[in-house]
Write a structure and sequence with these properties.
This protein has no helices and 27 strands. By secondary structure, it is mainly beta. The protein has a domain of 207 residues: 7 Propeller (Methylamine Dehydrogenase, Chain H), CATH 2.130.10. The strands form 8 sheets. It has a 4-stranded antiparallel sheet, with no helix packed on it. Strands 7-8-9-10 form a 4-stranded antiparallel sheet, with no helix packed on it. A hairpin with a 2-residue loop joins β26 and β27. It starts with 9 loop residues before the first strand and ends in a 5-residue tail after the last strand. Keywords: Repeat, WD repeat. InterPro entries: WD40/YVTN_repeat-like_dom_sf, WD40_PAC1, WD40_repeat_CS, WD40_repeat_dom_sf, WD40_rpt. This is WD40 repeat-like protein.
């Protein structure tokens, strides 16, 4: 588990004991953690400053620091079938790294990035990368602060498609903060600060289904699958300025059907009580693990399939 102080913790699901076996290298908010699936023995972490660290999972030692990004890295995932890592940053770039030696292999930025800006609280921001999915054929699907989804070929760095997926959110404008593959593997999901969850066809990129379970925003890193049950945490009221407050909730619903028949409405339910914040949600085997802030205190909650 990544922490705001830069530490990496481990959680024993049976004893629920949290330990800190990794040395502290990150000096600030730790945004993303991922296991390198090609070996299963490497851990990747990224932080607020733009640093990526490649770890040996068994010895808990740092192997390489991957430097090149100039801003926060909220998205970092393995490249399927290769010993490589893909990272997306608030600096607007997507970079591919060699997972063995830590060297950068390629970097690409949207050609129209300078023309797409976000105006927030009197400041202007260029488009970022805030969420990313890499599929088995090497396509990189990325979204950011403009609400636009872009699809790239990881081999040629060619832009394959782009479209406006999410629109103005009531709190901080339009941000795509989660992109995830559906268990069926032919559909993917995007979530945003407009409170919507959108299901897209992976082949045609056509919109299959839109759900709005939250008034304001689905939170980044607060979404997971448990079978075909989708779980996400988000902001559901409390005023536009109140990003963290007692108006956040966790919702769950069955998305086995990627489309709905005419006249059929989505049914989702709330999991647990209202909370102040939901920093992380993971699916680990048959259980879902959540970090939830209630009454000012962060706690780890474990939910089983029977409850979900």
């Amino acid at each position: 588990m990544g922490r705001v102080d830069g530490n990496i913790d481990t959680l024993d699901l049976e004893t629920r004991i949290v330990e800190k076996p990794f040395p502290k290298i990150h000096q600030g908010f730790l945004y993303s953690l991922s296991i390198l699936t090609s070996s299963g023995e490497r851990l990747i972490s990224s932080d607020y400053s733009g640093m990526i660290v490649l770890w040996d999972l068994k010895s808990k030692t740092a192997l390489h620091k991957l430097e090149g990004h100039t801003s926060t890295i909220p998205a970092i995932v393995p490249l399927p079938g290769q010993s490589a890592i893909v990272s997306g940053s608030h600096d607007g770039s997507i970079r591919i790294w060699d997972a063995e030696n830590g060297e950068q292999k390629s970097c690409f930025i949207p050609a129209d990035r300078s023309e797409r800006t976000l105006h927030l609280k009197g400041r202007t921001y260029q488009e970022t990368v805030s969420a990313m999915l890499v599929v088995i054929d090497g396509r990189i699907i990325a979204g950011g602060w403009s609400g636009v989804v872009r699809v790239w070929d990881s081999t040629t760095s060619k832009l394959l498609s782009s479209w406006q997926a999410h629109f103005d959110g009531p709190v901080i404008g339009t941000v795509i903060n989660n992109i995830m593959l559906h268990p069926r593997k032919d559909v993917f999901i995007t979530t945003g600060t407009d409170g919507r969850v959108c299901l897209w066809d992976l082949a045609t990129y056509s919109l299959l289904r839109t759900i709005k379970p939250l008034e304001h925003a689905v939170l980044p890193n607060a979404a997971a699958w448990n079978g075909t049950t989708f779980i996400c945490g988000g902001k559901d009221g409390g005023g536009a300025a109140n990003v963290c407050g007692a108006f956040n909730k966790i919702v769950t619903w069955d998305l086995a059907h990627t489309t709905l028949e005419d006249g059929v409405e989505d049914e989702f339910r709330q999991l647990g009580s209202l909370c102040e914040y939901v920093p992380r949600v993971w699916s680990i085997g048959p259980v879902v693990v959540m970090i939830v802030q209630r009454r000012g205190k962060l706690t780890v909650e474990i939910w089983t399939e029977e409850v979900l």
